[in-house]
Amino acid sequence: MKKTVISLAVATSLTLSFTSVQASTSANASHNQSSEQKVLKKVNAEKIYQDIAYLSKKPRVAGTESEREAATFVQKRLSKLGYESAVEPFTFTGYTPAASFSLSVNGTSYSPTTFTYSTNGNVTAEIVDGGLGTKDNLANKDVTGKIVLVQRGTITFGEKVLNAAEKGAAAVIIFNNTDGELNGTLGGANDNYIPSLAVTKEEGEKILTSIQKGEKPSGTVKIEGAVVSERTSYNVTATKPSTFKKKGTNDIIVVGAHHDSVAGAPGANDDASGTATVLELARVFKTLPTDTELRFVTFGAEEVGLLGSEQYVSELSEDEKNRIVGMFNLDMVGSRDAGDLVMNTADGTPNLVTELAQASSTRLNGSPTPFQAGGRSDHVPFTEEGIPAALFIHSPSEPWYHTPEDTLDKISKEKLQDVAEIVGTAIYDRSRPDQQGSSVKKRATFKAPHLYHEQDVK
Fold it and tell me: How far apart are CA 184 and CA 170, in angstroms?
């Protein structure tokens, strides 16, 4: 799945709005320094690093034994800290990519890519022009038993394939509308899909020119080893109730990260770093008095569509949704070669999480961590339910994002320490049981600067 980190529109050095300065000044004035030190003295980047070392020994693809092992590790660590923790399984439809795939046209081999959820097949047939693959483009064409060549654009890849299949086509070739390889997904499993491959703009235009000349090119589309099946992934949960049964706020703060990785990637940064930081914050807060319920959650199947966080949110009662005042999502928080720390909010607007984190980062580092619009991680399902949520991530991402090079040696302990301190003190500023923290518990007038811009994330 997943993340496209959106570039910052404004540098962090820009002057904050007057109301933001007022809020920051007020927060600084009221902050209990000795209380904050309780968090800072406990955070230990070495412990985070060691947990990353264990988790990143091998890929943790959702629905595999290695993901189950990772979930069990997280649960045992939380249990050892004294939490009542649970591994919560859920099922999803998973896809194993094709073991092999190929395309030849008039005997010449091409170098295609395949789509997630494309089905197996071995088809040799005439290739015909299908335009953009819309229903209108295909309405008056005879594509029965043929391979349909369509261009990227206007509708989704999955719609193009289904439209061709509905007209009786045997296979589909989709070519890019811009330079470079085309990597995509059909969006989900569907029994009506037919074998589908992708080629570059140059390769597609070459085939199209042959069709337009009336040469009736013959192609062979071959896909083997793709598997669609029901699989099991896991969320891991632990809860720290309010220390004060009668004087608690009745509010909830969720701290989360995803423990799965993509195929072939050890996922040291993505997202063993976030998972290990959640474990460290659980350790830090275990013995600290808090008047707010804290929930520590690691999600499964994030890489295949935010499935774990969607499952978690779907099981929340209306009362719980109303009580959750903030969700801190930690995803890719330790790469030495990524950029600076930013926060992504799914709707591009500030909320209590960004307020608290900007206040804590200003106290710790002298400037507020900027935020920007960005989705594609586990904060999104919370936002969709009206829960304040933000993703903590470094931007731009590292060059080996989603590759086998996402390994332990690329992790920065300094960045881990920084993120854990900012998030930990932000959470404690909202959950510590003293009167000086109460001003931060009110959300009335804070207006954070909009340090982001929208960008296409497809």
Answer: 20
Q: How far apart (Å, rounded) are the C-alpha atoms in residues 359 and 61?
A: 36
Cβ 196 vs Cβ 114: under 8 Å: yes
Q: E strands within 265-319?
A: 293-299
DSSP 8-class letter at 435: G
pLDDT value of residue 184: 87
Residue that is written with structure tokens 């030495």 in the block: 336
Q: Express each pLDDT in 356-402 by its tens digit.
A: 999 999 999 999 999 999 998 999 999 999 999 999 999 999 999 99
Strand partners, 223: 101, 121
Whether residue 174 contacts residue 182, with contact meaning beta carbons closer than 8 Å, is answered with yes
Rounded to an integer, what distance in angstroms lies between the CA atom of residue 63 and that of residue 295? 24
Residue of 356, 82, 380 whose CA lies nearest to 258: 380
| pLDDT tens per residue across span 37-68 | 999 999 999 999 999 999 999 999 999 999 99
Dihedrals phi, psi of 115, to nearest 5 degrees: -100, 145
| DSSP summary character for residue 224 | E
Q: How many CB atoms neighbour CB 172 within 10 A?
A: 30
Tokens coding 332 = 């890719």
